[in-house]
Amino acid sequence: MTISYIRPIVPVTAPGKAADSSTRAAGQPLPLIVVPTSRPPRQANVLYRMAAVDHRGRVADRHVTAALDWNAGTHLNIREHGGLLVVAADPHGVFKPTKEGYLRLPADARRAAGLSSGDRVLLVARLDHQTVTVFPPVALDQLVLPVLPGGEDA
Questions:
Q1: What is the share, in percent, of the chain residues with pLDDT greater than 70?
Q2: 127 partner at 20 to 30 Å CA-CA among 12, 28, 110, 133?
């Protein structure tokens, strides 16, 4: 049996033309990306999390309640504001986290925000204000789609 090899085809740069990145000489460093420094620093007092909501309104994330130091004895107030749900520590609130540390959104609040079982929500915890704002999928669509390349039709 005879083995034949196929010779590789190596493009040659024409004389007088500048070499591009594909013909860069070995050992030459790649150009670095310049990171703009004019962006404001991140806020250390804000925590972002994504979580699913189950059929009983439980939000499957405990990081937010732990960061806020909320436990099963913490009284909470839940209100709808512009399609978002705002959960705040309130000594007169009638809601509480579960004993496992999960937020539970009542059915009325879920209906007001258009949430269904299995929906994933963005949780934005303002640690300095002791609040969590729940962004349902429709609110995320309104925020994100207009800034994506191609706009809302993307």
A1: 78
A2: 110
